[in-house]
Amino acid sequence: MKLLVTGGAGYIGSFMVNSLVDNGNEVFVLDSLECGHLEAVNKSAKFIRGDIRDEGLLNNLFLTEKIDAVFHFAGLISVEESTKEPELYEEVNVAGSNTLFTTACTNGVKNFIFSSTAAVYGNPVKIPIPEDHPKSPTSPYGQTKLQTEQKLSQLRKDDPEVSFACLRYFNASGASLDGSLGEAHDPETHIIPLAIRAAVNGQEFKLFGTDYDTPDGTCVRDYIHVLDLVEAHNLALKRILEEKGENYYNVGTGIGISNKEVVQAVSRASGISMNIEDYSRRPGDADKLVADPTRIKSELGFSPKYSDLMTIVDSAWKWHSKK
């Protein structure tokens, strides 16, 4: 198949491109390189430097190449930044996605896999969180993802040929098992790479909040290895091609891991005794965010293979410690 991956030079997008290429597809990558890295793009993919807001570029692409499906990863992802620049997030994540989807549909491309987030749920009223949980995002970032999901739903109402899956990630993590490809965000906000960075540099690690309503007092989150996350996308593509519809899936394990457990795992992987300093909790951090993955397991046969904590941390250590 001919497949377009927006944001294919980013963390998850680059892993997705590798998998699609390995499966024998002709893959096109659209990325502005504002946040992505050209060196992360598989050399067998056809790279196009551009923006999802560029309607002319998109029209030309869809007219020239008969794309079968679009994997949409491109977008801004920082919760903190979104609170400071909500208009930018609206412009890129919502307006940009609208331009991508409508231009694709106009040119006969009707199959979409959307990179969504558990942030659409907001503070949970039920743990583990099912897909029909109330949607009350607590950040502009989460709101823009929800609005994009709603845009896809409206497109399908207008045209029953549109078929899509929104994958609501919990905590994407890890790197390739040999450490050759991994996470490279700037600024970095995720706990595993931050803990590894602190270990490598001999710096203190700031542990935000030790008074949560959890067994050890620190936040509990659901971590999914990037390789398992990619497999969820492959299964979702098969689903939307075989059976046209509107699909929403949590991508997580259903297992909660605390911040203290993460830091301890980094110490084990690195062999470094870390200097941990306790800080007050950050505003807005929920006690627990854990997926109910029942639907994706039952409907798609999803079964994570690499998402145990030590596989995640060991692979991330191999990647970050060599940089």
Tell me what the structure shows.
This protein has 323 residues and is α/β, with parallel strands linked by helices. It folds into two domains: 2-172 and 224-251, Rossmann fold (3-Layer(aba) Sandwich); 173-221 and 254-320, Alpha-Beta Complex (UDP-galactose 4-epimerase, domain 1), CATH 3.90.25. It is built from ten helices and 14 strands. The protein has helices at 11-22, 55-64, 79-84, 86-106, 140-158, 191-201, 226-242, 259-270, 294-300, 309-320; strands at residues 2-6, 26-31, 46-49, 69-72, 111-117, 163-169, 171-173, 204-208, 220-221, 223-225, 246-251, 257-258, 275-279, 288-289. The chain has a seven-stranded parallel β-sheet, with helices on both faces. Strand 5, helix 5 (140-158) and strand 6 (163-169) form a beta-alpha-beta unit. Helix 6 packs across helix 8. The chain is globular and about 55 Å long. The two termini are 35 Å apart. 47% of the residues are buried. The model has no long low-confidence stretch (mean pLDDT 96).
Keywords:
single chain, 323 residues, alpha/beta, Rossmann fold, UDP-galactose 4-epimerase, domain 1, 2 domains, seven-stranded parallel sheet, 39% helix
In the CATH hierarchy, the architecture of the largest domain is 3-Layer(aba) Sandwich
What is the overall number of helices? 10
Q: Tell me, what's the shape?
A: globular
Structure summary, number of beta strands: 14
Radius of gyration: 19 Å
Helical fraction equals 25-40%
CATH fourth-tier homologous superfamily of the largest domain: NAD(P)-binding Rossmann-like Domain
Strand content: 15-25%
Computed structural class: alpha/beta
SSE arrangement, N to C: EHEEHEHHEHEEHEEEHEEHEEHH
Poorly predicted regions: none
Quick check: average pLDDT? 96
CATH topology of the largest domain: Rossmann fold
Distance between the termini: 35 Å
CATH class assignment of the largest domain:
Alpha Beta
Strand order of the largest sheet: 3-2-1-4-5-6-11
Q: Which oligomeric form is depicted?
A: single chain
Sketch the major β-sheet.
7 strands, parallel
Number of domains: 2
